[in-house]
Design brief:
Layout lengths: L8 H16 L2 H18 L8 H22 E2 L6 E8 L9 E7 H27 L2 H6 L6 H30 L7 H25 L18 H19 L1
Antiparallel strand pairs: 1-3, 2-3
Helix pairs in contact: 1-4, 1-8, 2-4, 3-4, 3-6, 6-7
């Protein structure tokens, strides 16, 4: 059994690393950070249902990167450079100067689109890793009582990814029992989103019904201490973020 980290450790580290990635704006460094985070998730995983949310965040990030690349190729502001290929150019009205649909696709335009997609995917992967290794319930236990409204919002935000991963497996199993093989994404998208959001909202409603945040003094059955290993991880993330910001 791995020793658990403080619920805020990975979230604080993810925020610090996200700031550094955006400030540095380097795709290679961003990919290296995603690799390091993936190794951390592999080492720290304990078989909890929310562990699967990291792989889901990687797939979502890859999809967004692909969409951003395709959109950058088809639509955007022309960037001069080495022409890779040409696609039919669509004439646009005169009140849309500088924007083109189609035309010459340059290496610079392609790399720019890929670069932006990698940065976006890295943001998703960072917070996906924090969600994967932190129980949403433990995270809410350390939320100050005066932030109870934000805490209710965090219930929905932090439990969405884990619920998506768990619900997707449940829906696929149910479809296989009904004789539906090789179900595509379209067949599970609506029930997946509906079930995930419903469970998250039910949890938030249950917290509100139990008076979450009403009392200024929090009661804690098992207080979660902030230990030296939490300081080490946050300090490392802070140092790395400062290096990226100051470059």
């Amino acid at each position: 059994m791995k020793k658990s980290l403080h619920p805020l450790t990975l979230w604080v580290s993810a925020i610090l690393l996200a700031i550094g990635v955006v400030a540095l704006d380097n795709a290679l460094v961003a990919l290296a950070i995603v690799g390091a985070v993936a190794i951390l998730v592999y080492i720290r995983r304990d078989g909890s249902p929310w562990n699967r949310s990291f792989s889901l965040s990687l797939r979502i990030g890859a999809t967004i990167m692909a969409i951003r690349t395709i959109v950058g190729i088809l639509i955007g502001v022309p960037i001069p450079g080495t022409v890779l290929f040409r696609i039919p150019l669509l004439d646009l009205p005169s009140w849309m100067p500088g924007i083109r649909v189609g035309g010459a696709v340059t290496l610079e335009r392609l790399t720019s689109s890929l670069h932006e997609g990698v940065i976006i995917a890295t943001m998703i992967a960072l917070f996906g890793a924090a969600t994967s290794l932190t129980s949403p319930h433990k995270l809410l236990r350390v939320t100050p009582s005066f932030m109870y409204e934000i805490g209710v919002t965090l219930v929905i935000a932090t439990s969405l990814f884990p619920q998506l991963a768990t619900s997707a497996r449940r829906i696929r199993t149910a479809q296989k029992l009904r004789g539906i093989e090789n179900a595509g994404l379209r067949s599970i998208a609506i029930p997946l989103l509906e079930e995930s959001l419903s469970r998250s909202l039910q949890l938030a409603a249950a917290m509100d019904a139990r008076g979450y945040g009403i009392s200024r003094k929090r009661s804690r059955y098992r207080p979660q201490p902030w230990l030296m290993r939490d300081n080490t991880i946050v300090f490392f993330a802070l140092a790395l973020s400062l290096v990226m910001v100051t470059r």
